[in-house]
Amino acid sequence: MVVLGRTPLSVADVVAVARHHAPVELAADLDDAMAGSRAAVEAAVAGDRPVYGVTTGFGALATTRVSADDAARVQYAVVQSHAAGMGPDVEAEVVRAMQLLKARTLAAGRSGVRPQLVRAIAALLDAGITPAVPELGSLGASGDLAPLAHAAIVLLGNGWVLEDEEGGTSRRRADAGPVLAAAGIEPIALEAKEGLALINGTEGMLAHLCLALADLDVLLPTLDVTCALSVEALRGTDASFAERISALRPHAGQARSAANLRALLASSPIVASHRDSPHAVQDAYSLRCAPQVHGAAREVVAWVRGIVEVELASVTDNPVVFGETGEVVSTGNFHGQPLAYAADFATIALADLAAIAERRIDRLLDPARSDGLPPFLAPRAGVNSGFMLAHYTAAALVNRLRGHATPASCDTISTSAGQEDHVSMGWNACRSLRAAVADAMRVAAIELVCAAEAVELRGIPPAAATAAVIAALREVVPRMDVDRFLAPDLAAAEQLVRTGAVLDALPEPIS
Hints:
- It is a single chain.
- By secondary structure, the chain is mainly α.
- Helices cover 55% and strands 6% of the residues.
- α1 packs across α9 (203-233), α9 runs antiparallel to α14 and α9 (203-233) packs parallel to α17 (426-458).
């Protein structure tokens, strides 16, 4: 159960609700925590001074006064007009994470809204009602305006929700009103400041990053596993992974990956049998430098995690309301630049992780560099092509990852008649990160399949840890001594990587 109140959420909380439909409960002091800021908003409506988003319009219309009679109607209007996204729908788990994070921001008591809004979002989450949020539309500057508006409009009984197609294999858009009615959920009637509070903030970008961190906690150690398999398959040495080597350059990430490789290759008969052979003086960089490259990516992810943890305890609404003084203050906390940089940097690291894995795959399949393995791991090469096209797929994925890694955060396009003249493009950066995580997992799956095949072709027992991984793979992907339809095998391996089953197969855990 995840409790919404002034206490910050954790990444684990967000994932629990977004992916695993953990129930949401409201803190006992929620009403008291939100009362002061709400009273300040109501006082602003009754007063005669301009207060952005309460007694004025929005963005470039901030100088347009809104009467007390229109204070509620303008909130309804802003949600309607800002739900202007296009393109395919964002994944349901991202939307659920975004809903939870928005409810947490409102519950912090700095947005000037009523507790009813938090209860309404929690009701949608617990009912499994997920707004349909188009992928395109956010600039990541006034936060994620269009995506959050598509989520907010459902609270009004309007807009679209995701509904399972017949058979449950895909989801389609359905009108929100009938779905809410069937669930017994009454639409919300917005009051002053509430529409703006629902659509302003960085919760969309943050949702992506929380889910990405959960996936990266699986992917990073999995790449250490697939690398260890490749080291064995290529009869490499473990000498460069020694603890004393990492101690000379004490980056925490490098030390962690090197320790994983030592543990995975411990007592490997393959490594031991070739430790003193002439070729083992220096392995190729894709093997020898794996702790340095994998470790550098770990350092990037650790930095991203720090950014996310700050955001999970932040209020990114605008304006913010200080109930203790009655002030309603315009801010720039909604600007997504910290999240945009984090997403871009993580994507760059993933593109390079995939690139070094692809180099290991290429080496496994090339008889000139694989130390005796058959071409493309095909025992009857020529009659069979083996894993030739699996490598093509890995190369295509790396190319696409490099496209994902083109930074969005260094671009800006002035909008709202020049009022919003510098934007982060953080939403697009986060969408690229999500695609990059998926593609990097696919490259890891290809290395898993190829390296396992190569280890078995050696005919020498591998280490206990890598043997356990190969056994788990063989439960769903048999050896390929003769060419067969390969796509299902790669899909099954991808599932092992994505679900963490590769790590679960290890006799001792790594991280």
